[in-house]
Amino acid sequence: MKIRIKFSKYGSLRFIGHLDVMRFFQKAIRRAGIDVAYTTGFSPHQIMTFASPLGMGMCSLGEYMDIEVHSHQGAQDMKERLQAQCPFGIDILSVKALPEPEPNKKVVSAMASVSAASYAAVWKEKGRSFCDYSGQCADFLAQEEILVEKEEKKGTVFRNIRLGIYELKIEDDALLFTVDASSSGNIRPSWVVSRFLDFIHVAAPDSALQIIRLELYTHQGDGPERTLIPLDAIGEEF
Amino acid sequence: MRLPDFENRLALSDEILLSVDKPARYIGGEVNAVYKDKKKIALRFAMCFPDVYEIGMSHLGIQILYDMFNRYEDVWCERVYSPWTDLDRILRRENIPLFALESQDPIREFDFLGITLQYEMCYTNILQVLDLSKIPLLSKDRDETCPIVIGGGPCSYNPEPIAPFFDLFYIGEGETVYRRLFDLYLETKAKGEDRASFLLRAAREVPGIYVPALYETTYHPDGTIASFLPTAPGVPAKITKEIVMDLDRAPYPQKPVVAYTKAVQDRVVLEIQRGCIRGCRFCQAGQIYRPVREKSLERLKKDALELLEGTGQEEISLNSLSSSDYSHLKELVDFLMDTCREKNVNISLPSLRIDAFSLDVMGRVQDVKKSSLTFAPEAGSQRLRDVINKGLTQEDILQGARMAFLGGWNRVKLYFMLGLPTETPEDIRGIAALCNEIAALYYDVLPKEKRSGPVQIVASTSFFIPKPFTPFQWAPMCTKDEFTHKAGLTKHAIHEQLNQKRIKYNWHEADLSVLEGVFARGDRQIAPVILRAYEKGCLYDSWGETFRYDLWTEAFAECGVDPDFYTVRQREKEEIFPWDFLDCGVDKSFLWKEWQKALRQEITPNCRQACQGCGAARFKGGVCLEKREGAAV
């Protein structure tokens, strides 16, 4: 049975990398006594995949991993057991069962199914807010081109990220935006933030802002019918 | 909208953490790290491994003491490691004091800073930790507000080269008298007695404690030691190591701290015994941890299960100097194999002798993938193996290799030392000949259709460094040129072999070995050199990318110290060694006897075969009390 686990990452654990999170969960799952499935072969390892890696220094309310288990005592039990093994900085937010794939089809892994991600950017300095700039969001999005520099083998290339920005607004103190996070068109949140700061003529070092991933989305339908749904919306209670 | 907590409660700003390599080294908060309310704590201890986090976190001794100290309600033990060079520069530039991982509080605020001394090449890192903590580098310059700086671990068996940097050393195994030391500290503090009074009382009242400031050395005109004596009444002239006689009753961490970032030792470590029966004459551990004391099978089974449960690790490793000599190895391995198969845990079995039993075990553990097999003949000829008392014969090695080849292995690693006492070019050519013979054996033993690819032999040599408390403590060490010449000779001899294409040869630069040789048998005159080298920028000397031999050479010259005095000189029987005031249980007269036997190429039976009366029987335990012929208790 495939299980999708949603978790948060915050506090000092902002400074542990993606591979460290994976190693952490491998051990936490063992300590929690979850009946996890292993690959076969000469060096068995837990069947475990993660959705899009989170940049160093960022926090998240929407991290996902998929695991496979042989047996369980319900989602609530699994959530509590795993939570008991988590330090300050990781919380288990939801545990859901992924639907059985249709015959002859594979389950789409957490990693492969990501199409978009939403983020918040807030000032670390207390009392500082984006709210004065809420009027500029529409103008920012009205640009035809939002260019970012990208280092590639051939040298620096420019990429227009405008179409990959699906939504951008200011709410409370935070700058909120939803962007393409698919493997082919992934947009780094820092690009959006720095272009927006340029647009509103605010100069600040990267470390002055905290970026928080709010959710990862997959999509249903295509073309005009296409809608984004959170990664755990396709899972079921058990 | 409710945002997650991103407030920085760390000693380093987000900006710094995001600018250094592997920030996880500095944030603490690992699984099983211990947090306490510092208002309820009487004594704060910062435990330091003076190397980078991933190395320090892999060390068993710190995990044992960290666990033991934190079981004391009134003590909070935290950890600190050497910041890597990137953070080192930032801390200096921004004037940020070095901090402990758990509380993130400056080390300067602690009662104790304990530094484990696992290898000589960490000595400049000790100064780095002190310096970044804003603690004066020399004990004599410290005031009442400074933590007590205490050293321990194998290198404290010759603490003299670093003596002026420490307030005291704990000689021997940590499990025994730390509580007494803490109680004395709390008592003197409560009475308002000063630092000097605590140190004096520690030297007088707590066994195993060495306070360097309370001893004075005088020298002969030739530079050797004339006398080494305490300067205050009641301070012992000889300090006996501390030792745990019943390991079953000693504390062992059930929940060691598990690093987020990948530590070098990313597995559960099960210590099965301390000490070694073998008595190889080059080996310091084989002498200073005498006598061999085993843990019971029952205790180990319990420990193994608890450790796997408490950490979630996916691999378990046995720890000892010579696992094959553990009396219940078969039962233990059978138990672990059953348990581990069930739990999908890997077993790693280092320091096993290659024989039918170990090959069977490894075959079962490693299953399909056969990794390489390791032998440590240490010397290329039987003659030289007799000199070093390495009880491994050519026949043992060839028999082990034959069985291994038949069992499906085709890669063999061989470890040798160059520069052993009495070594001749013939012995060195023996290294090449042995490698060749093993390669040839592969083709003899296996018909073509049964071979899984060509055989691969990897021969590695290290340079022999005489260590204190070994029979070779009197022996001269080779010069850098001699070492380099010997490595060249080895390489040449391997090239002459019929199967030379199947043999890969690795060796190291000799610079580091020369320096290690100076520190190993150095006296207090070396301390100014270490200080000078540190001031010149030496740091992380055990790391190839940061080792600066040129700066060390300058430091020796500027301090007027001749490194050759400590390395290449032949010592006389009567010479007083800088470490002679320490008593590790093995008598100097026994070591001399062994040195003479070495020169006559005579071997000595191991502790289980026949007691040699080394002196360790006075601890009344371990192998010394086992029933066997020739016991001298």
Write up this protein.
The complex is a heterodimer of chains A (238) and B (633). Chain A has five helices and eleven strands, in the order βαββαβαβαββββαββ. Chain A has helices at residues 18-31, 75-84, 110-113, 137-142, 189-199, and strands at 2-9, 48-50, 59-68, 90-97, 116-123, 147-152, 155-160, 165-171, 174-180, 209-220, 227-230. Chain A starts with a strand and ends in an 8-residue tail after the last strand. The model of chain A has no long low-confidence stretch (mean pLDDT 92). Chain B is built from 20 helices and 19 strands. The mean pLDDT of chain B is 94. Chain B is α/β, with parallel strands linked by helices. Chain B has a domain at 14-240: Cobalamin-binding domain (Rossmann fold), CATH 3.40.50.280. In chain B, helix 14 (425-445) packs parallel to helix 15. Classes of the chains: A alpha+beta (238), B alpha/beta (633). The interface between A and B is large, with 46 and 39 residues.
Shape of chain A: globular
Question: Which stretches of chain A of 5+ consecutive residues score pLDDT under 50?
Answer: none
| Count of discrete domains of chain A | 2
**Structural class by sheet pairing and helices of chain B:** alpha/beta
Q: Mean of the pLDDT scores of chain A? A: 92
Sheet having the most strands of chain B = 6 strands, mixed
Number of strands of chain A: 11
CATH topology of the domain at 14-240 in chain B: Rossmann fold
What percent of residues of chain B are in strands? 5-15%
Query: In DSSP terms, counting alpha (H) and pi (I) runs of 4 or more, how many helices of chain A?
Result: 5
Head-to-tail CA distance between termini of chain B: 76 Å
- What letter string, H or E per element, gives the SSE order of chain A? EHEEHEHEHEEEEHEE
Which CATH C-level class of the domain at 14-240 in chain B is it? Alpha Beta
What is the helical fraction of chain A, as a range of percent?
10-25%
How much strand of chain A? 25-35%
